[in-house]
Structures are given as structure tokens and as C-alpha cells.
Amino acid sequence: MKTDVIDSHAWQRLQNLAVNPYDLTAPGALQQDGRIAEMMCDSAGLRLFYAAQRINAEVLAAFQEFADEHQLVDRFKAMRRGAVINRIAGWESENRQVLHTSSRDIFTDQAKEPESARQANAEFKKLRTFLEEIEGDSAFTTMVNVGIGGSDLGPRAVYEALKAHNIEGRQVHFIANVDPDDAARVLTQIDPARTLVTVVSKSGSTLETRTNEALVRSRFEQAGLEPARHFIAVTGKDSPMDNPENYLRSFYMYDYIGGRYSVTSMVGGVSLGFALGAEGLRTFLKGAAEMDDACETHRVSDNMALLLALLGIWNHNFLGHPTLVVLPYSQALLRFTAHLQQCDMESNGKSITLDGLPVPLKTPPIVGGEPGT
Q1: How many separate domains does the chain show?
Q2: Is residue 254 included in any domain, yes or no?
Q3: Residue 309 and residue 169 share a domain
Q4: N or C: which end of the chain has fewer CB within 10 A?
């Protein structure tokens, strides 16, 4: 994002429109001009109802101008195709591609970034083979996922959301907090002999994760079990955890996938595949890929993700709302807000542009919330 964004015509237009935003408290405000029917967006099987936002057709037109002016969809397309965007000009930075989308772009012969999609497909096939090996083996009924941050929040949120679709008798527990009470809570519920443990760390040296791993390993040893027959590594290739002497299997994650976006990689794939089965995981990944494709739609009113992003900018920068409360009215989504909080606030909570200059606008709001009742 360049510093001239606030000087652009669309930005100035939105500032003028924000002086007198649509009044939702006026009698019949939601019934005017077919508002309810018009302000719906369908993408990849989901429907967004946004008539309760303080916008009208003029604001939507300004959104479209802003998206076109700053080539937002073209930038997303470039990201999917391997553009190096994790960088800051003139500063020492990671200088990496951002290719979490490749982790689910594995069901087509025309992947957007072929090499990363090839790597993702290779890991998916490895996982499918492993899952087939244990599919008919009733020895393993439980998995414990040991990770922190994106190695916990995304997989936990999706597992809870889809738990009703688990293979019968399968369950997954999560350990993230270095407070030993977190591990103790899980370890009292499992039979180690029937449990697999997935340890997730890209570097292979994440302190909290390795500390919890050591604690869980000791529990298996106390039960007279050999941890290497139960522990699985999800890590970077050639990391300290990429060691067949210590792990039953190793699945790889790559440095072009940020932790908070890694749920469709092996970071989430191993635990979700164990719970849902290979076909259940495949269905989840195909849904994510379908939404990625929908995000390449240029028309804002037909692009759910882009529309939500622009509504966020409108509410925070123009209407002055500093917080976003997310209240999923489904108990299955009880961990969704925590996952979304990390994705939004960690990704967008930056103060420097790609050009190495101060960001001239408000970045993300404070995101929080719990299931609504």
C-alpha cells in the first residue's frame, strides 16, 4: 500500500460520503429500494448479508473505484502466482512469496504457482497414504496437537467447527499453553497407547512447543511406550525435528506459508485428516480453493472477501469504529473468533508500508468476541 492512498480520488469520495452515512435508525431503513434483496453476496456456497451496514449504492460505487484504483484483485492474483510481497523496500526483511493458497491449489492441472502446488500435493499424498495405513487400525483413536499461535488456533477452530463429521471414535486434543495445567488437562483424558501426538513447529525449535513436547513425551515413557512410535513432526525440511529416529512420520511446511494462514497446509492437515479422514480433508481443502477462486472476481459486490475488507476499512477509517465484535451464533464456531483475531490483527497490524514509509491510515480494528446466544 502506497502512502498516496489517502490522496486518491476514491478515498476522498469515501470521506465525503462518511459525513452523512446511511441512517439505519430511520423508519423503514432496511425496506427501502429493495435493500435486503440487493445487499447479499454469494461466494463458494456462503452468503453474506450486509444490508445492516451503513452504506448505500454510492458507497458501493466508491468501494469499486477504490478497488480498481489500487488494483486490489490484480494484487491478490499476483500473490497467488508467486509474487514476492513479504518484503519492505530498503529494509532487511524476509523477502518471501506468500503462498498459503497453494496448499489447497492441488485439485487442478493448472495450479496458479506450480512448484508450491507440487510440494503441497506431495505432502497431501504422503498424508493420505499414512491415513490409509491407520484407517483400519483401531489402535489409534486419539490425536494430540502440540503447537502455538497459528499452529494451534486455525487447526483448533476448524476441528471444533467440523467435529460432528469426525470418523466415529476419533478425537483430537490441543495443547498450546506452556502452563503445565494445559497439558495435564489433556493427558488425564487420553490413553497414550491409543494416541498419536502431532508436534508442529516450522523452525523445529519453538520454545513453548518443544517444552510441551518434552512434557508429553515423558508421559508416554512413564506408560512404558516408545514416543517415536507415536509422535509425528510437522516442520520445515531439515529442521531439528526432521528426524526419523524421534518421529513416526514427518510432514513438511514451507517458509512461504505464514503460521496464521497455515491451517490448509500440513499444519492443520494432519490433525484434521486424522479426525475427518482423507476425503473429509479433501472436501475442506476444495472449499478453501473455491473461495480463493471467488476472490479473483473484480466486481466488489460479487467478491465476498473483498467486500468484507472494504467494509472493515469503511467502518474503522471513515466511521471511526475501532473494534470489531464477532459473535458466531453457532457453538461449533466457538474458536473461530480467536483464529480470525490472529489472521486480521497480526497480518494487518503494521505501521510500515511495503515502500518502507509510515502507514497513513488506521490498520486493523481490535477484534474480539465469543459465540452469541
Answers
A1: 2
A2: yes
A3: no
A4: C
In a domain, 86, yes or no: no
Q: Nearest-CA neighbor of 268 among 127, 116, 141?
A: 127
Residue 32 pLDDT > 50, yes or no?
A: yes
Give 97-129 pLDDT, tens digit per residue: 999 999 999 999 999 999 999 999 999 999 999
Radius of gyration of the chain (CA): 23
pLDDT at residue 139, as a whole number? 86
**Residue in the structure block whose three cell numbers are 498424508:** 127
Judged by DSSP in three states, 222 sits in helix
Same domain for 270 and 319, yes or no, is no
Residue 287 has pLDDT above 50, yes or no: yes
Q: Is residue 94 part of a domain?
A: no
CATH at 347: 3.40.50.10490
Do 167 and 284 lie in one domain? The reply is: yes
Q: Count CA within 13 A, CB hemisphere, residue 86.
A: 14
What residues form DSSP beta bridges with 173?
144
Q: Are residue 230 and residue 276 in the same domain, yes or no?
A: yes
Residue 104 and residue 219 share a domain: yes
Check whether 137 has a pLDDT greater than 70. no
Distance CA 63, CA 310 (A): 7
Share of the chain above pLDDT 90, in %: 93
For residue 89, being part of any structural domain is answered with no
- Domain span including residue 157: 100-288
Rounded to the nearest integer, the mean pLDDT of the chain is 96
- What is the phi-psi region of residue 90: left when phi exceeds 0, alpha when psi lies from -120 to 50, beta otherwise? left
Residue 173, C-beta contacts closer than 8 angstroms, at least 6 positions apart? 142, 143, 144, 145, 186, 189, 190
Determine phi and psi for 141, rounding to 5 degrees: -115, -10
3-state secondary structure of 331: helix
* Angle, vertex CA 56, rays to CA 52 and CA 58, nearest 5: 160
Q: Return the beta strands (E) in the chain as ranges.
A: 40-43, 46-49, 84-86, 96-97, 142-146, 171-175, 195-201, 231-235, 249-252, 323-325, 366-368
Whole-number pLDDT of residue 3: 43
